[in-house]
Every structure is written in C-alpha cells, then in structure tokens.
Amino acid sequence: MSLSLTLALRELRGGMRGLRLLAICLFLGVAALAGVGSLASSIIGELEAQGQTILGADIEMAVDQRGATPQERAAFAKLGAISESVRMRAMATRADGSASLLTQLKSIDARWPLYGSFTMKPGALASRPRGLQAAIAPALADRLKLHPGSIIRVGEARLTVIGLIDSEPDQVGEGFSLGPTVLVDPAALAATKLVQPGSLYESRYRIRLDAGEDAHALAEQLEHRFHDANWDVKDSSNAARGLRRFVQQLEQFLTLVGLTALIVAGIGVGNGVASWLDQRRGAIATLKILGASSATIFRIYLIQVAIVAAGAIAAGLLVGIFVPQAVGWLAGDALPVKPRFGLYPLPLVVSAAYGLLTALLFSLPPLARARRVPAASMFREIVDGARRPSTPVLIAMVVAGLGIAALAILSARAPVLSAGFLVAAAGVFALLSLIGWGIRRLAAAMPRPRQPLARLALANLHRPGAQTDRLVVALGLGLTLFVTLAVVQSNLTSQIEQTVPKKAPNFFALDIPVDGIDRFLSLARAASPSATTTNVPSLRGTVVAVRGQRVADMKPKPQGAWILNGDRGLTYASKLPEGNEIVEGKWWPANYSGPPLISVEDRAALALDLHPGDAMTISVLGVEIETKVASIRRVNWETMGFNFGIIFAPGALEGAPHSYMATVTLPDDAEGQLNRSVAATFPSVSLIRVKDVVGQVSTLFGQMATAIRAAAAVAVAAGIAVLIGAIAASRRARIYDAVLLKLLGATRGQILFAQALEYALLSIAVAIVALLIGSAAGWYLVTQLFELPWGTDWTLVLVTLAIGALGTLGIGLLGAIPALSARPARALRSL
C-alpha cells in the first residue's frame, strides 16, 4: 500500500487533466444535494426556532363563524394567558369613496402579541390601534394613497389610519391572504357591524403557557376534549403547517432532481475514469512490464480516483453550506421566512455519502479493466473490447449500489416516492443500455450504404470498440432529464393560463345579504348593461359523521377526503349547476320537498367510498343535520365559477342565517364604477378581483419555477459533462479512425460529416425514447408530487428536446476536433 500511495501521488504531480471530468461531475451532484438539503433544513429550522412567534402562541385554537363558549374559554384560561383575535375579509374604502380594496381585517386585543414584537413604521400617530383607529399594511397605503391621519371606511365604521405596519410577528402563521392587512381592536370591529350570523370570519384564541409546559401534549388534550366542536388546533411545533408542507414537497422534488444529477454525473465519472486510464495506457503497461502486479495497478489508480473524488466532494459540500445564505441574499423578502444560516450536518453527511458511493460504483468497472488486462493487450483494447469485472469488483459495485438506494430511501421524507424513483432510474438505465445494444445489432444487420461516408457512419455504430452503448446511455439520460424538467416547468409556468378560462369573471362578490341580492345585481347592470352575473346561496358547515362514524374518531382520516377538513362551503340548489355532471345516482326534482338530500363531489366520494343512499351528518352553525347522499357529481373546477363539494337539496338550509355569493363579468373599464357603487351601498360585501388572485398564485408558481430552473441548471450541466465524458472515452479510437481515413485520402470535412451523421442517427433514436420516458416522469411529478392539474405545453417540451439533441450534436462535433487535428505520423507513433 505504501508503494501504491507513493506512485499514485507521484503520478498526480504531473497534473490531473484526465480526472477533471470526474471532479466536475461529482462537484455538481454533491453541491446540488448539499445545497437543497441545507436550504430546506435552514427554512424548517427557522420555522421551528421561531414557532412561538410565527404562531403567536404556544397553542392556537381556531374556529369559524363563532366565538368560544364560556366553557371553552374557561378551559383555555386554565392553561395560561389568552389573546383573542378575529380575522375576516373586508373592503377598505377611501373616505371620499373614490377607491376601495379587499383587505384582511384583523381584530386584536390588548394582550396581542403574546410572542414577538409588533412595530409601526416611522411617522405613526400611535404605537397600536385603539378605538376607531386602524394600522394598515404598506401595500394598502400604496394602492389607496393613504397616510397617517387618513380616514377609511370598513363596513359601517370610519377609521383613522394611525400608520403603516412594519412588523406583524404572526403574519406567516396566518396563512394565505387575499389582501393587505388592516389591524383594529375589538371596539372598531364591532363598529364595522361585519360580524353577523352567517358571516365568514374566524376566531382565534392564542394561549401562552407557563415555562416548562409541553405545548404539543396540551394541544392534543384540547383537541380530544373538544373534538366535536370543529376546532383547528395548532401548537408551536407545527406553527406554519402549510408552509412546512410546501417546503418539504419542494425539497423532495429538488432532492430527486439532485439525485438524478448525481446519477447522471456517475455515468460521467465512469467515462472520465475510463478516459483517464486510456490516457495512462502506456504508463500502466510500463509498470506491469517492470513487475507491478494487477493489485498494485488497481490500488494506484483507485487512490488517485479517491483523492480527486474527495476534493470534489469537499468543494461541493462547501458550496452547499453557503446555499441558504446565498438564497436569502438573492431572494430577499420573497421568502416567507429568512433561511437560518448555519451548519446542518445531516444533509452534508448524506450528500458526501452519495458522492463517495457514486464515485466507487461508477469508477470500479474501468479500474477493474485496467487491473485485469495484460500489458501486451493494453495497446490492443481499441478493438479488444471490455472484459467483465471480477467477482470481488461486482460485489463491491452491488454494495455501493445498495448503499445509494438505502440512503435515498432512509433519508427521504417520502420513502415510497424515493424507492419508486430508484426503481424507475434503474429501469431507464437498463432500457437505455438495451437500446444501445439493439442499435449496435441493428446497425450490424443493416445493408451497407453505397455512399462511403454513410457506410462509415453506420460502421462506427457497431464496430469493435464502438462507444455506442455509452453514448446512448449518456445521451438518453441527458435528454430524458431535459424532457422531464421541461414538462414540470411548463406545467408550473402555464398553470394559470391553462386553468383560467378566457372569459373568467372580473369579480367574486362575497357576503351579499339575502335581502340585498336583487339590489346588488342591479348595481352590476348599472355599471355596465352588458354585465353578466351568477349568484348562489352561501353557508359554512362541517361534516361531523359519515355512515354513523364520527369524523373525530377517524384515525387517520382517509387520504383525499378533503371535505372532512374543517369548515366547508355549502349551498343549496334546485338545478344541477353548470360544469357539474352526475356520475352516480340522480339529481332531485326542481320542486323537491322532503328529507335533507345532498350531492357530493366525486373525488371526495371516492376517498370516503360514498354511494347514493349513504348517510352523512353535517353541522351548520352548531346544528347537526342528518342527510342522505342522493348523487355523486363530477365537478369542473376550472370554470372559475362557484363550485361546491357538497350541495343541499332545497328545503334544508333556507331558514339558516346565510348570504349570497356572486360572480360578475363586465368590461374592464366598468370595474371602477362597480367597485365604488358596491362599497357605498354594501359595506359588508367583499369584492375579490380575479386578476389579483391570479397574480398571487402566479407569484407562487413563479417562485417554484425559479427553484426548479436552478436545480435543472445543475442537472443539465451534469448531463453535458456526461456527454463530454462519453466522447472523451472514445477519443483514442476517434484519432485512430481519423488518421487511417486521412491516409486513405479523406478530408476533414468528410470525416466531420461522417461523425455528424453518426451522432444524428443516435440523437433521433434516443430522442423518441426520452420523450416517452420524460413525459411519463413529468406527469407523475406534476400530478402526484405537486398535486397540480395536468397541462403541459408540448411546444416547449419539443423545442427543449430539439435544443438538447442539437446541443448533443454540437458537443459531439466539438469533441471530434482533436481527432481532426491529429497528425498522422505523430499519431501512428503513439497509437
């Protein structure tokens, strides 16, 4: 071992030019994995560290459309200090009525916030709102041209703006919002008169525990005690559940992309090592002639590979450490929480292990070939072909492969997904290898073209020593990766355009009083005679039992049963709504009068195994209604209309306090008049501008797309490196061919054309396979991992595939330059 180490280090002093590809491939793969893992750990670490501040409490109890009962409040008070807040949508209007905007109205009491600090921007008239005062978000001030001292109307109250909000500590924990925040105290909320029976609002009770209390355990006790009261219970350990889930989903996807890049890079590692050993052929032969054993040769070059791999992995880990800081600096306020910069050992250790195992797995075959081939035949390997690795090497390769699989599964948040990915990756690798073998056999069996260059291109695909197998695997993996990422990217970037219909409504109107619906419709027609409207009754309710089983007793709830999650929108209708289709059972008559019947959306029904005739109990404003399923509906959720998971038959809900919702479609230039007239006539009505909602969702998809593009760049770079490695591995054979062809009178242009034709044939064959495999992989990621509708822009995918294939052709031709430049006399002496 001492001799092997000495010789390995001495040879490395001459430079590591041949091993640069190994270093680049490992660096890219490890940096991608370490960066993704560190970034996700930093964001989740920040969520955990700031859990109390993000939630605004140790425990939060939230309920819709009501406040806590005296018994519930007493139970909360026994645990610690309580802060109560109410959150709802409301329109804020300038005092002169010239402009209005949908906002998130939030009532806070004197104890708020229990954790963190609430601050106002410089110039505020007071430190917090009291009485008929309001603190507003800067976005609202910009849109309505407000400043400290301005008057706004919210509901029936006229409020004085005391200043702009600088820091709202629990904003991240509040979740998605359709408008900027308006903070008021309970007196101002009461003055708005927006909280009425049937109004859509949420009451939150935040509890600060004594030091040392177990928040999670106490939250579970409260959830069990009030399991029939529809409380949504959180504790500081899961403050921002939606954000955490989104980060984890994105981390899982980006980790798979990084793992793909590393596996693709592994092919590059194998090609790089093979190319390196091909360049060292003379040195290896010389060492064997001088008495070096096969084991010594193996150790020398294994040590060299290990040294270079260790350096590349260390550099990749270093980059991964600083990714959270770089993302925080580049993204700025676009992130919901700033990544916590620090050292996160687990993703770094996992990434390093991935790199080491990948280097071992893919470098062993070329090392084994160098070890087994006798010195005399080292100069004939151009036509000899590769030999099967020995049994110990095969065992080591299997162990390394199993190690990668174990890491991918055990370290994943979704082990089943990772296992499926590995099986799919192995299947793709095997399929591409089989296709490469098939292309060689097919090329050998085809008739020889009369045209010499075409015959030469065809012969290059199947001759002894041809790199067709490696090129097909490298090219296939690269193009498949391009197609997969293009499918995911196009789904994210075109999601809005493909799901929002061309004639989407201008506004959604919420909380229209029952006795004011006709007046509201007349205001829409007054704003524009061409305005079209639809309106439906609106209530909130909770499914509390299915076929006699209480939802609170379902542990866990059935996957996909979204209608069981808290309050849901309800309505009643005599006719089947547009965009709905009955798939089981039948719709009730228009003049139905009888026991309560409901119609349920088909995906929710599938999750709960519901069929016509099954019983469901639904709580509406605390009153439990026993219903029977009359039909199952397929709902077209992309109509941008009002769609409901549960629709009641007439007769059951009309007597309950409720309101109406409406959509309004009218020319864009009439939006301002409708906004002003509705704000003046119906202070309690919320007008949601569809373009604003689309803009927020577009921003979210844009952030996801940016993250995917960043990961894709690493994967694409790895794919390019792999292709370069495959070409480099065949350099010696290419030089040999070029020299012989030059001696026979071929020009550089003819040689280049023959190679271009060879790569074109390979690209066409592999591109078809890549399109099929990449599209299937993209469909799975979009529909199963991100749970988004399928809507791929095939033009973008095909253009991406064409660019990848043309890029491959260009890289192949660039790789031919050394062969074209070789001087016959010098090349013949070295071959």
Number of strands: 21
Round the Cα radius of gyration to an integer and report it.
34 Å
Q: Going across the biggest sheet, name each strand in turn.
A: 2-3-8-5-7-6
Beta content comes to: 15-25%
The secondary structure category is alpha+beta
Could you please describe the fold and organization of this structure?
The structure is a single chain. The chain has 831 residues and is of the alpha+beta class. The protein folds into 4 domains: 1-52 and 244-377 and 389-413, no CATH class; 57-238, no CATH class; 415-500 and 691-830, no CATH class; 532-665, no CATH class. Strands 2-3-8-5-7-6 form a 6-stranded mixed β-barrel. A 6-stranded mixed beta barrel has the order 12-14-19-16-18-17. A hairpin with a 2-residue loop joins strand 6 (151-154) and strand 7. Helix 14 packs across helix 15 (415-445). The longest helix has 40 residues, at 690-729. It is elongated. Mean pLDDT is 79; it is low at 381-386. It holds the Pfam family FtsX. Keywords: Cell membrane, Membrane, Transmembrane, Transmembrane helix. Residues 257-374, 711-820 form the ABC3 transporter permease C-terminal domain. This is FtsX-like permease family protein.
